[in-house]
Design a protein that fits this description.
The protein is an alpha/beta fold. It is built from 5 helices and 4 strands, in the order βαβααβαβα. It starts with 9 loop residues before the first strand and ends in a 7-residue tail after the last helix.
Amino acid sequence: MRSPSSLKKINVLFVCMGNICRSPTAHGVFQKLVEEQSLQQIIGVDSAGTHSYHTGQQPDFRARSAAAKRGYDLESMRARKIEASDFSTFDYILAMDNENLQDLQAICTENQKSKVQLFLDFAWDPGTTEVPDPYYGKQTGFEIVLDLIENASQGLLDYVREHHSLVTTA
């Protein structure tokens, strides 16, 4: 296995519709896992939305609150819309649901489609294929989202470590 300092940076982008609930939550959870494994020099993490409804805004208060209770910090994040350049920059572009997956596949080139997939493809037996949008629901929806995201984040990190032959320095 190679150490992180000898590798090209691996970039991961999480995508939902508005970039204020699910994708910033995934960003925060995965970022913390990456840092705990001392892989932040080799794995870059970001999030975006397929729509520009909330560009420049912080994640939804309920998402920030639920994340903070579990030790994740989303405070410095700001919503942004995905850009064409993201399809070249990022190695993994992970949609929270099928609608956003289809939106992403519609705007990327044919040779970039292999980078785009559902985030929960990395989860261990999640019981669903999509991270549900908690925006119009109650606080419990944000807890369910966190459960799914924590599961898939660990699976994703395990996959990236194995697929890219990463060892940790921690």
